[in-house]
Amino acid sequence: MVLGADMGRLGLMVLGLALLAGCGTPQERCIASATRDARILDRLITETQGNIDRGFAYVEVQRSRTVWVVCVPAQAATATSPAQSAQMCMDDQYYTETRPQAINLADERVKLAEMRKKRAELERAAVRDVASCKAQHPK
């Protein structure tokens, strides 16, 4: 189970680097870039494992609804023009809704196994790339 422990350590390192990536040193930015794919795959692995555990997935669906909005605001009367009331018109508002979606659990398990294999490959590459970043950009 050494691989699992190594993945945990790399995950902590990646998380720390992600927090520093926006304002980090050249070395930290290089390391964040070198471990980007691993971080993305970690999120996908977590999502897929959650889907398997739940037995279904969540999907986001774009929806819209039509609402009345003020198009022209009310204006007070002036010496040269009478007061005008606000004018209303209809406008579409868009929002995102999260819905459950049925999944094929067997396919999800195969996908998860493949992602874990790829994650191990990415970890080996990340270790090499992080060492290269440290050599290129010493602190």
Task: Summarize the SSE layout with pairings.
Blueprint: H1 2-20, H2 26-34, H3 36-54, E1 56-72, E2 87-102, H4 105-136
Antiparallel strand pairs: 1-2
Helix pairs in contact: 1-2, 2-4, 3-4
Characterize this entry briefly.
57% of the residues lie in helices and 24% in strands. The protein is of the alpha+beta class and 139 residues long. The chain has a domain at 2-61 and 104-136.
Largest sheet: 2 strands, antiparallel
String of helices and strands: HHHEEH
Described by the principal axes of the CA atoms, the overall outline is elongated
Question: What proportion of the residues form beta strands (DSSP E)?
Answer: 15-25%
Strand order of the largest sheet: 1-2
Radius of gyration: 26 Å
Compute the number of strand runs. Answer: 2
| Helical/strand content category | alpha+beta
Mean pLDDT: 87
Instruction: Please estimate the helix content.
Output: 55-70%
Q: Please count the helical segments.
A: 4
User: Which residue ranges are poorly predicted, with pLDDT under 50 across at least 5 consecutive positions?
Assistant: 1-5
Q: Give the N-terminus to C-terminus distance in angstroms.
A: 33 Å
